[in-house]
Design goal:
It contains 11 helices and 11 strands. The protein is α/β, with parallel strands linked by helices. The chain has a single domain, classed as Divalent-metal-dependent TIM barrel enzymes (TIM Barrel, Alpha-Beta Barrel). The strands form 2 sheets. An 8-stranded parallel beta sheet has the order 7-6-5-4-3-2-1-10, covered by helices on one side. Helix 1 (10-25) packs parallel to helix 11 (337-359), helix 2 (69-77) runs parallel beside helix 3 (93-106) and helix 4 (123-135) packs across helix 6 (156-180). The chain starts with 9 loop residues before the first helix and ends with a helix.
C-alpha cells in the first residue's frame, strides 16, 4: 500500500499517481491485478468524493469549486470515470439540457442525490426537482435519512422518533417517484442497520423504492461489508463504493476510506453479488478523503439507541476488525487546502484505475 501519511505537494502526488498507474499496468501476474473482463460500465464518482474541492465555500485559487454538474462531468471524464452521482437542487432548464448533452457526448451516466420531502408542504419542491433532473437523464436518486446514529442520539426514544419521521418521508416521496417512474434509493448511512432498511423496503413494497448500498458505512454499526451487501442486494438501486481500513483503539476502532483495492473489502465478490441481483446497477465511488472516524463501540453511550448492548455482536465484530487492523491510517492532518484537494484527486484516480484493471469497470 502506498504511504500517504506524509504531506504531499502537487508534484509528489503526480509522481505517486504515475508510478502506481504504471504498476497497475505492468503487473498482470498478480491475481488481484490481473486484467478483468469488461463489465460494460465504468466506475462513477459521487460528489462527496470531492469533499474538499466540491465544497461550494472553499477558497482555493488553484482548484476552485466545480461550477455545476457539467463541469464535474467533464472533469471526472479526464481520468476515465463513467459518470457522476451529484446534487440535483437548483438545476434549471438550460443546465438540464447541457447536462444531457454532455453525458451523450462523453458517454457518461448521471444519477442524483436528493433530500426526501420533510412534510406535505415540501412535496412541490421534491417533485419539481425530480422532474427537472429526469429531463437531464437522471432516473435514480440517492437519499439519506440521518447521520451517525452513535453520535447524533443519546437515547433510544430519539432514534425511534427519527425512524418514525423517516417512514413518513419515504412514503411521501414514493408517491412522487412512482408518478415519474424513477427510483429513490435510501442509503444505509451510519444510521440504519440492514434490517431497518429491509423493514422499510418490505413495508412499502414499491418497485420505485430501493437502497443505495454503501459498502463501508455499516461497519460503524458492526456489520461486516459482506453481510450488509448480501442482505441489501435484492433492493440495490445504486451504490456508494468504498474500500476501508480499520484500527482498534481504546474505546472501539478507527475507520477510514482508502482507494479501492487498498482496503480489506472483497470488491470482486461485492460487485458480483450486486450485479447478480441488478445487472443495471451503477458502481459509484464515494471515496471521502479525511481523518479516521472514531467508532466508540466499547463505550456505553454507543449502545444507547439499541435495545441492549449485544455483547456477542460486539465480540464477533472486534474479531474481524482485529484481523484486518493496520497501522498508520490515512489522514489529512497538517495539509493545506490545495494539498487536501490534490490528495482526494489522487485517491479518486487510483480507485478508477484499479477498478478498470482488476474489476472490469471499463467501457
Amino acid at each position: 500500500m502506498l504511504d500517504f501519511s506524509r504531506r504531499m505537494d502537487r508534484r509528489t502526488a503526480i509522481v505517486k499517481l504515475a508510478a502506481t498507474a504504471s504498476f497497475l499496468g505492468l503487473a498482470p501476474s498478480l491475481p488481484a491485478l490481473s486484467h478483468a473482463a469488461s463489465r460494460g460500465k465504468r466506475l462513477g464518482i459521487v460528489i462527496h468524493s470531492y469533499a474538499f474541492r466540491g465544497s461550494r465555500n472553499q477558497k482555493s485559487k488553484q482548484y476552485p469549486p466545480f461550477k455545476d454538474a457539467v463541469e464535474l462531468l467533464e472533469h471526472v471524464s479526464t481520468y476515465g470515470a463513467g459518470g457522476v452521482q451529484t446534487r440535483t437542487s437548483d438545476w434549471d432548464k438550460p443546465l438540464t439540457r447541457q447536462i444531457r448533452k454532455t453525458c451523450d457526448q462523453l458517454g457518461l451516466f448521471i444519477e442524483g442525490t436528493i433530500s426526501a420531502p420533510r412534510s406535505e408542504n415540501d412535496l412541490d419542491r421534491f417533485e419539481k426537482e425530480i422532474a427537472t433532473a429526469k429531463e437531464a437523464g437522471v432516473n435514480v436518486f440517492r437519499t439519506a435519512m440521518g447521520g451517525r446514529r452513535y453520535e447524533d442520539f443519546h437515547h433510544r426514544h430519539e432514534w425511534l422518533e427519527l425512524k418514525k419521521r423517516s417512514w413518513k418521508r419515504i412514503r411521501l416521496a414514493e408517491s412522487i417517484v412512482r408518478k415519474h417512474k424513477v427510483q429513490l434509493a435510501v442509503e444505509n448511512h451510519k444510521d440504519w442497520e440492514a434490517k431497518d432498511l429491509i423493514e422499510f423496503m418490505d413495508g412499502i413494497g414499491s418497485e420505485y423504492l430501493g437502497v443505495t448500498i454503501d459498502t463501508g458505512n455499516s461497519i460503524s454499526l458492526l456489520e461486516h461489508p459482506d453481510e450488509t451487501v448480501g442482505r441489501l442486494a435484492k433492493y440495490g438501486a445504486t451504490t456508494h463504493i468504498k474500500d476501508m481500513v480499520v484500527q482498534e483503539y481504546e474505546d472501539g476502532f478507527l475507520l477510514s476510506e482508502v482507494p479501492v483495492g487498498q482496503g480489506f473489502l472483497n470488491m470482486k465478490s461485492i460487485f458480483n453479488t450486486l450485479e447478480k441481483r441488478n445487472p443495471d446497477i451503477q458502481f459509484c465511488l464515494e471515496m471521502i478523503t479525511r481523518n479516521p472516524l472514531k467508532v466508540p463501540c466499547k463505550t456505553r453511550g454507543y449502545w444507547e439507541t439499541f435495545k441492549s448492548q449485544d455483547t456477542s455482536k460486539l465480540a464477533h465484530a472486534l474479531k474481524w476488525i482485529r484481523a484486518n487492523s493496520q497501522e498508520n491510517l490515512p489522514s489529512v492532518a497538517g495539509k493545506t487546502l490545495d494539498e487536501k484537494i490534490e490528495y482526494e484527486e489522487l485517491n479518486n484516480t487510483l480507485s478508477v484505475k484499479y477498478a478498470e484493471k482488476a474489476l472490469g469497470l471499463k467501457g
